Amino acid sequence: MSLSIVKSVLSGGVVEIAPRGEIDVDTAYEVREAIAEVLAKGRPLRIELNMRLVTFIDSVGISAMVAGFQTAEVSDVKLVVTEPSRFVHRQLWVTGLLGLFGAPEPYFAGAATREVLPGA
């Protein structure tokens, strides 16, 4: 499977980078390049790496995320992970890197629309 990346400017000086697909030895460089490109165009207050649509990430992908974090940090830009898929969340937790990326909760489809019934 391939990887596609969408970049969006959000309010408050935030740039979102949203990869979709698998981040592995063949595609990890795309994540690094996306972060570097955002930093080359300016200095946002924060970069949010939205990992909701990432179905797989290997050690090379994790390394690319760490390299991106370090590149952003040198530029005084905070890089955080938002909405990690359950797989990504697990990989960050197992590697001990969850806290580095802001300790995000895993994304659950439909979680925002779930109703709590009275007496439940």
UniProtKB/TrEMBL annotation:
UniProt-listed SUPFAM superfamilies:
SpoIIaa-like
Residue ranges constituting the STAS domain according to the UniProt record: 13-120
Entry superkingdom: Bacteria
**PROSITE patterns recorded:** STAS
Which GO molecular function annotation, any one, does this entry have? anti-sigma factor antagonist activity
Pfam families per the record? STAS
Give the UniProt family note: Belongs to the anti-sigma-factor antagonist family.
Report the NCBIfam families cross-referenced here. ant_ant_sig
What is this protein's record name? Answer: Anti-sigma factor antagonist
